[in-house]
Amino acid sequence: MTINTAVAADHNAPPITAELAKFVAEHPSKGWSDAVEHEAHRTFLNWLGCAIGAAKHEAVESALAAVNMLAPAQQATIAGRAERVDMANAALLNGISSHTFDFDDTHLKTIIHPAGPVASAVMALAETQNSSGRQVMDALVLGIDVACRMGNLVYPQHYDRGWHITGSTGTLGAAAACARLLGLNAQQTAMALGIGASQPVGLREQFGTMTKPFHPGGAARAGLMSALMAKHGFTSSARALEAPRGWAQVLSTKYDWREAQDELGQRFEISFNAYKPFACGIVIHPSIDACAQLRAQGVKAEEVKSIELRVHPLVLELTGKKTPQDGLQGKFSVYHGCAVGLIFGRAGEEEFSDHIVRREDVVSLRDKVQAVVDTSVREESVYVTAHLNDGRSVKVHVEHAIGSLQKPMTDADLEGKFHDLSDPILGAERVNAILKSCWNLGQAPNLQSLLALLKP
């Protein structure tokens, strides 16, 4: 059997591992603008609301049952639950719950959901370290920067190959954040990144199942463990990210090293985070927005003969399920998204419940939606035409959906979303206190008061 060892590779890649490690270890605390600082608080708040909202979901219940078989030490909090587990499994469980509703933050350039892996790992470690809110914010910003810069470096080829980029880059972001929280030096941080580089998590085949939210949870746990191992002297390659057989060149045919280096310490990727008004894959959002606009114009579901979509190719590749059978599958059906957008004028978690996915009127309208790929349409856009029974046609073009960087959710919108997710778990009065704590987290001496509020 012949083995081809002459795989094309860049043997002259810059020292990305060392450069990112030095940045994470040595960048000044709060070394960014007030706008970046505010976005960090928005990111944390949105992540926490998503984690609390799904705390009782069957995916979390199943994962917790498995974790409890390991008899974990009661070190850390699971948001929205009374149980405590060891910090590694708290990172896992909070990462799972934060992504279960597919309602979390999105770095639109790469469609990474960065807070899931990074914030889940940071909060678990910060609780056991009694870290300050300032330390948590620093770790969050820097960890997300590493994850998203590495995503920029390999996207879209890495994603097109089938990797779930949230998990594969999230391990690196979580490792970087935890290294910062532990106060590791540049060499130790490089080892943490190297250990994390051997643990990419997530395949796109798993979308529409409980294993998709496992990816950010698994990445959070792996990144946390990578940093802890590096703290205690565990070694890795000092070129684990850029070497010919390292993370980037193994996992992608594209590796643009400049994406990791350009404006490092000046441009922060958390600035390009967006937040979802709809609880599903981001590429469906323009179609839901358009159908909600049809409803606002007076179009009723019973009047519709058919709905025609012109969409970017990625929409059908990611969300082309025509006949979803449950809520998780519904999140990957542009057809279902359009149906609930027109019927309800919204697409929160309830609209992606098993009950709504199977409801007769929703199924009937879903079957009338036709999606056509048009390569001239951008990912963030859609052209929708509703053909009515009386012969009229109503058209809507969405250039940028609600929740995009061009039409961002306001702080008040995020608070409303937080209440919708968390009030059923913790009650409105407690949620108000949590929101206040989140907005002021950067000034908190530790996380103890916030963590106390997260238990039902």
Unreliable stretches: none
> Major sheet: order of its strands?
6-5-7-8
Q: What is the count of β-strands? A: 8
What's the shape?
A: globular
Q: Structural class of the helices, strands and pairings?
A: alpha+beta
Task: Spell out the blueprint of helices and strands.
Blueprint: H1 16-26, H2 34-53, H3 58-68, E1 76-77, E2 84-85, H4 87-100, E3 106-107, H5 115-129, H6 133-154, H7 157-160, H8 165-182, H9 186-197, H10 211-231, H11 247-251, H12 258-261, E4 273-274, H13 285-296, E5 304-311, H14 313-319, H15 327-330, H16 334-344, H17 354-358, H18 360-366, E6 369-373, E7 382-388, E8 393-398, H19 411-426, H20 428-439, H21 448-453
Parallel strand pairs: 5-6
Antiparallel strand pairs: 1-2, 3-4, 5-7, 7-8
Short descriptors:
single chain; 456 residues; alpha+beta; 4-stranded mixed beta sheet; two-stranded antiparallel sheet; 21 helices
